[in-house]
Amino acid sequence: MNISALQKERAKYQPKLPKSLKGIGKLVEGEKTQSVADQDEIKKLFPNTYGMPLVSFEEGTVAANRAPINVGVILSGGQAPGGHNVISGIFDGIKNINPKSRLYGFLGGPEGLIEHKYIELTAEIIDDYRNTGGFDIIGSGRTKLEEEWQFDKALEIAKDLDLTSLVIIGGDDSNTNACVLAEYYAGKKSGMQVIGCPKTIDGDLKNEMIEASFGFDTATKVYSELIGNIQRDSNSAKKYWHFIKLMGRSASHIGLECALKTQPNITLISEEVEKKKQTLSDVVNYMAGIIAKRAENGDSFGVALIPEGLVEFIPEMKKLIAELNDLLAEGTKTEREFKHLKKSHRITWVAEMISPESAKVLLSIPSRIASQLMLDRDPHGNVQVSLIETEKLLGEMVGKKLEEMKSEGKYVSNFGIQYHFFGYEGRCAAPSNFDADYCYTLGFAASALVSEGKTGYMSSVRNLTAPADEWIAGGVPTTMMMNMEKRHGHMKPVIQKALVDLEGAPYKYFKSKRGEWAYNTNFIYPGPIQYFGPSDVCDVTTETLKLEQE
Ligand code: FBP
After folding, report:
1. So what's the pLDDT on residue 174?
2. Does ligand 1 have an atom closer than 6 angstroms to the CB of 73?
3. Is residue 421, in this structure, part of any structural domain at all?
4. Do 127 and 241 share a domain, yes or no?
5. C-alpha angle 75/204/121, rounded to 5°?
6. Mean pLDDT taken over the chain
7. Residue of the CA atom closest to atom 5 of ligand 1
């Protein structure tokens, strides 16, 4: 493998573990749990894995000579910095339990498990990937693991490899499926355990017990570095507005965190737009108002952050997308008809098939964007918001609004605009010290849960703003995070997605400051992630967590 000097140095980094996981921790059972909502339905659907207690590890003197365990690991969904460290944590954890334990990696996500494609992860392979970004050690994929024939196929290979357990590293959808799988295997008394690990840069897999999903820290640090660089350029040239779309699918956690780190002039928070029932023109008017006022003060430049999921939170667009989802649902007659149409006829055809209000919205937006709203959904039925150029939609509409304002004498400048989309730039970055430590600990805790015979749990590490030594490692029954939601027209048990809490400290702080940041130029330029140096530069985690835990 060709590696950079930094990577060579970084490979030597020994991730920190909490005290409780040094050696072999002692398992302590906490309170019994129940799901966040819809308790009766969830209990009925998960008779074997519902209501289990929270568990945590404490420093202990558990006998070291435990039986070897063979574990299979899967990376599921979008990449997030630190995935390789979860895997190295599992590897070191099971070897610590018994050096004869083995780790197998299924290739290309859940599909590898169903198609029996795997490699044994040896010490040599693991060492090449310690503290590196990416998921390339075994690859990832978005195949849904939700049908019984898939579960049975997985069991075949598990038996062949003598696996005791599977660790599924994924976001809310993948962990929901991991829990369904755990329940199925428990019901069959197959002896196979399933443990989940909370991954996603989006930051929306979190709750009281899961303080953060891994990758969020590193990805937002990378985006904030880039935003800071753009802010400095903008403040130097003083001639452009930069409209920056930020990944994060539904929730605006990434946008909010980056705003807290960089203090740009405008940050849209989708959850707030939805709560205030703002229309597309309300959002455009808000942005144009700030741009015009800054121009009046002589500042014809600035930076605006736009969450990628915004369109799904604007009520009129949400209704349109929901109607498109039904019309274009995979396997339906209308989807087949749509696919047979010439591309140039599609928008008018769709407009005739949906409600008059939604048709009006569809026809009012640029046709390029309208076509992007009709692209294939992902395997979980979600609109692929990363493919919708929301920043350009807003840029074009704001440009028009400013022209109107100019003709009324309410805008005194020229609107120069640059567009950016930050998403893929941060998903495979080398993990920050925080993510390197956090991920390694999540993996190590997963191996301890497996060795304790647990199934249907998600690996959890809490107290994350304290030094790693004091982190609390353990497991949370996945059913605890579930509620019933409508998916593809049916009510299903799913892990509740955590959107930005408009009553939470991070949003409240942002709200108290955004007026000041809009008109004064209070930019912060965070600079690149630092891996070596003082702890208050290298080891600190997100502003979101800091404000939440203050
Ligand atoms: P996960 O929820 O699987 O972690 O993926 C999140 C994400 O990075 C979103 O922010 C983004 O909308 C999406 O993946 C992009 O998907 P793809 O990698 O398929 O282009």
Report:
1. 95
2. no
3. yes
4. no
5. 15
6. 94
7. 78
